[in-house]
UniProtKB/TrEMBL annotation:
Domain of life: Bacteria
Record-annotated membrane-spanning stretches: 12-32
Tagged with keyword Membrane: yes
Protein name per the record: General stress protein
Segment forming the signal sequence: none
Keyword Membrane: yes
Keyword terms, alphabetized: Membrane, Transmembrane, Transmembrane helix
Species of the source: Pelobacter propionicus (strain DSM 2379 / NBRC 103807 / OttBd1)
Amino acid sequence: MEEERKSRRVAAGALLLVAGGIIGAGAALLMAPQSGRRTRRDISRCAQKVKTRADEKMEDIAVSISDLVETVGEKTDDLLDRGKDLAGGTRKELIRLIEEGASALEKFRARLRRM
């Protein structure tokens, strides 16, 4: 659960960083004294860079989430195995107790027959 919160914080921080970069770059380009054609080209380049960075961050987040899912799956498998082991041990103990009870009952029957 804690890792999920950390992943969300990292994703939120990455998105805020990208958004800040976009806003800052856009403002800088719009305020710069240059031709419209050059400004549009610069905006296009900037947008392409931001897209590339965003794609990289999304890939990183996807890998993190995949790792988290894999870890949760492994932990679940471990818990299931432990539960099976515990259930098997409990079952064996229950069978042993039933057999002891049956043996004690048979001894008691034998005593009653002798009487």
